[in-house]
Write a structure and sequence with these properties.
The chain contains 18 helices and 22 strands. The protein is of the alpha+beta class and about 675 residues long. InterPro entries: ATP_grasp_subdomain_1, PEP-util_enz_mobile_dom, PEP_Utilizing_Enz, Phosphohistidine_dom_sf, PPDK_AMP/ATP-bd.
Amino acid sequence: MRLEEETAAQHELTGAKASALATARRQGLPTVPGFVITVDEVERIAAGGPLGEPVLQAWRELSDDGRRALVVRSSSTVEDLGDSSMAGRFESVVGVTGWDAFRRAVAVVVASRHDAAAGSDTLTGHEPLAVLVQPLLDARCGGVLFGIDPVSGREDRLVVAAVEGGPDRLVSGEVDGDRYELDPTGERTEISRGDGGVRLSRAQLRELARLAKRTAEVFGGPQDVEWAYDDAGRLRLLQSRPVTAEPRGRPTGPVLGPGPITETFPEPLQPLEIDLWVAPLREALREALLLAGTADGASVDASPLVTVLGGRVAVDLDLLEPRQETPRVLDRLDPRPRVRRLRASWRVGRLRSALPALARDVLVSADGVLSGVPELPELTDRQLVAVLHRARPALVSVHAHEVLVGMLVDPAAPRLTGVSAALRVLARARQAGIPEAEIVATNPVVLALAAPRIACCPQLPPDVAAPAGGPPGDADDAGLLREALRLRVRWLQEVTARAAWTLGERLAAAGRLSRPEDVRGLRLDDLAAAVRDVGYELRPEPVEPEDPLPARFRLGSTGRPIPVIGTAAGTGAGGGAGSGPVHHGADPPAGAVLVVRTLDPSLAPVLPRLAGLVAETGSVLAHLAILARESGVPVVVGFSGAVDRFAEGATVRVDGASGAVEEETS
């Protein structure tokens, strides 16, 4: 069946690859001619039948009776799909000349589905398969074009990788080529040079951008395109399939990240916890930033300050972290930022003398709030809701002073921390045989070791050892005051958590909730309404916890995080983040981070059991990188010297978004 025929666009007859090319050809895209041995014909061949006369005739016409080399490729119904590309899992044979070589090439492609199934948990070896045949293109250069950033999902970025000759060496991982990031018009925004790369002209980049736009229009979404320029300088579309990365839109707003808030909220939160604890933090940050003068009111009002994605909390790093970039010329001429910094320095200088006394007053006030809470079982439902509401202003005050005092802390100065004190207390109490509940009741400092969570009791770490004694500290030391304020934050969170849990138990006992823990999925207003009105219907909406957020990201127009790249030694190829022991060589154990020199396609069967993959060479556009990303395996490529740097057995963390690979110490 020739690609020009209308029925060639039917996926069930010709497979995904061939049907896409047939569709593209009928829509006027610059494809290469060819024909398809259909799914039914392949089944006949697989059963032992010879190649039929129609195949022979099509071969003669396309190959000029054997004088023109061909490419014989798979076109399965289960590859090149939106949720799974199956990139490189089936065979292709390049440079096929002569009828006998053609018959052998077809046999190799047909047999490859059985070979692929041997190393797969999902393939059976009986997947419908067609064979696509096209002339071998004498390419000046070729590569891969992504209609969106395949790692971050940014829809305002196109990614092009280009190599000399055709794209085969690039997609196999043999070389990484030159990598271009473009805006939608084809203007270059970033470029990195690699092995086997080729320089593309501005006209070629603009033409590729137009091809990305056109394929997205034809196929209804951003495409992963293999392309080449032939010996006459004409752009050719060799393959088009949906990008398997999640589209995340265009990045907007400030740079966000978990940053300093990770210690406060190390675990994902549920709706009621967000209402109880994140809202006061947001208000406190606003007050602290305005009081210190480190940000103007317009910037603070325009900022989310604190945001929650999939239960994970992030803050505006543009406001909370010092900026390192070089100011523009206009910024240098504008006196307002310098005046603002001078005013902020003056305010912080005044705060330095006043804050210790203010902080101690806040500590006393917070302790008064905490000690004023009666035994929770003795309170009515309405009184428990009142506890939740009354804790908010106390949390705002303590949080705000914690931020302000933190501006005065010398991070290099040694001091006793709340965590070290908690470890010492917990270790000694357990050695003394004191029950866990009694430890928390008599030594609440141990709550510094437990993440805030609405539950019957905090989850303390199982195995701890008492650290060495901490250095003595001055009562007015900013660091010690900050630790004291952070402990009060944690205690206020625990009081509200216990009050909410008590309400959850009562609502479950009354049949209004299935389980006490379902109270976490409520909003505070709904919980209060249910206490006021026994007929109020409760519908918990728990949040499905997501993977940890990138260290630095901006929100896309779809509301999803788009990592801010640029500080890693390698290039992130997606797949999230993971940790595990380093393994070199073949047959890695489950949970290992495989560190290799090159992205060898033979590694595909072991990908699902890996915790991460790091390669010294290769491209984010290589087949193996695509497969790993689809399997949820974090991948970093282009990490020079990775094999020598990370020893066998060392535990490393791989971040497929930023490209960072860091050794973890126990």
